[in-house]
Amino acid sequence: MKIGIDKIGFYTPSFYVDMTELAEARNIDPNKFTIGIGQDKMAFAPISQDSVTMGANAALQILNEEDLKKIDLVILATESGIDESKAGAVYIHRLLGIQPFSRAIEIKEACYGATAGINLAKDYVAKHPESKVLVIGSDIARYGLETGGEATQGAGAVAMVISANPRCITLEDDNVFYTEDIMDFWRPVYSEYACVEGKYSTEQYIHFFQTIWEKYREKFGKKLDDFAAICFHLPYTKMGKKALDTIIETAPSDVQERLLENYRLSTLYSRSVGNIYTGSLYLSFISLLENQANLQANDKIGFFSYGSGAVGEFFHGTLQPDFKKYIRTEEHAELLANRTKLSISDYETKFKQQLPKDGSTFEIDPSSDPAPIVLTGIQDHKRQYIKK
Ligand code: COA
Fold first, then answer.
1. Would the pTM count as exceeding 0.90?
2. Is the Cβ atom of 308 under 6 angstroms away from ligand 1?
3. pLDDT tens across 316-367, in order?
4. Where in this chain does the record put each Hydroxymethylglutaryl-coenzyme A synthase C-terminal domain (predicted)?
5. Hey, which residues does 163 pair with through a beta bridge?
6. What is the number of the ligand 1 atom nearest to the C-alpha of 205?
C-alpha cells in the first residue's frame, strides 16, 4: 500500500525582522547573516501566537470537511510546548473541528519530532487504511536578544495529512535512523531560551548526516544520482549545504548541479522565515515543490531529519502524478508578502513581552493579529484560544 503526504501547508506569523537591520543594530557585517549563515528575514511570533495557534493555523488552510471526518489521530510535534501535561494537539483538535473519536498527542525530540510523528502516522495508516492522520510541527525558536543564536531564531508551523494513496508524495520504507546522547542543543524546563553549542551542533549535524548516508547507501544501494533533490532540516540555510557538500563530489557534475540548485530552491522559504525547528525539514520540501517547476511525477526526494540531543534519519519519497494540484504557491507567497516588518526596537520591545508566569489573568486583543486562530489570554491558568 502506498502511504505518504496527501496534503501539506505552512503558517508563519505576521511579523518579521530584516536580517541586515538586525546585523547593523548588533554592529555585525550584514554579510555574515545573509551570506555566512544564509538568512534574509526572521519570522517573529506576537504574544497572540504559540505552538498551538500556529499549528492550527497551518492545518486550517489544508483541511476540508472530508479530512475533518476521516482524521482520527492528531500528532503535534513541538519543542515549544505550552503545558507539561496536556497535549497541544487536544486544543488543535477542537479549534479545527475534527470528529471526536480521535487520538490527540504531543511528541518531542527537538527538531526531529515531526519525522517521528510521520513514521507513527505511516504505521497507523498501514493498519487503518481508511483513516487519515494530521501531523503538525510547530515551534518558536528563541535564543534571546544579543546572543550568538539570535540570528537563527524564527517561528512557524507545517501541517501534513498522512494517508493511504497520497496525492502529493509517497514515503518509502527505506528509513535509516541513528541516535547518540549528546548535548549540542537543549532547553531545561526552567528556561525560556535554548542552550546551544553552535559549533559543536554543526559538527554533529554533519557527523549524523555522513554516518546515516553511509549506512543508507550500504543498506539500499542508492546513489546521489537517484535523487531529484534532497531536503534538509535547516536551523539556518547554510547548514544543510555544509552537510551536502561533504558527499556531493561522489556524483557526476550534472547531478551535482541539479542537487545544488534544488538545495537552493528548497531553502528559499527558510531564508525568509528562519528556524521553525520541527517543521523546518518539511518547510524545505514545500519550498522545493513551490519553486522548482521542473519537478515531475516519480521524482525521488531525499529527506534528512535531525533533532539535537540527538536523533537523525534519512528516507525518501516519490512524487505522485498530480502533486502540482496540491501545492499552494500563491497562498504562501501572499502569507510571506503580507507580513509587517518590525523595527529592531519594536522587535526588542515585543521580544520582552511575555505571558505572565505567576498564574495571573492576562488579556490579549485578538484584533492585533490577522491570523484566524489566536490566543486571547490566560484565565484561571488556562490558555484561551479562539477561531475568529
Ligand atoms: N561575510 C560573509 N560570511 C561571514 C562573515 C562576513 N562578513 N562573517 C562571518 N561569516 C561566516 C563565517 O565564516 C561562518 O561561515 P562558515 O560556517 O561557513 O565558516 C558563518 O558566517 C558564521 O560565522 P560564525 O563566526 O561561525 O558565527 P557564530 O559564532 O555567530 O555562530 C551559529 C553561528 C549559526 C553557529 C550560531 O548562530 C548558532 O549557534 N545558532 C544556533 C544553531 C542551532 O540552532 N543549532 C541546533 C539545531 S541543529
1. yes
2. yes
3. 999 999 999 989 999 999 999 999 999 999 999 999 999 999 999 999 999 9
4. 178-247, 264-353
5. 4
6. 48
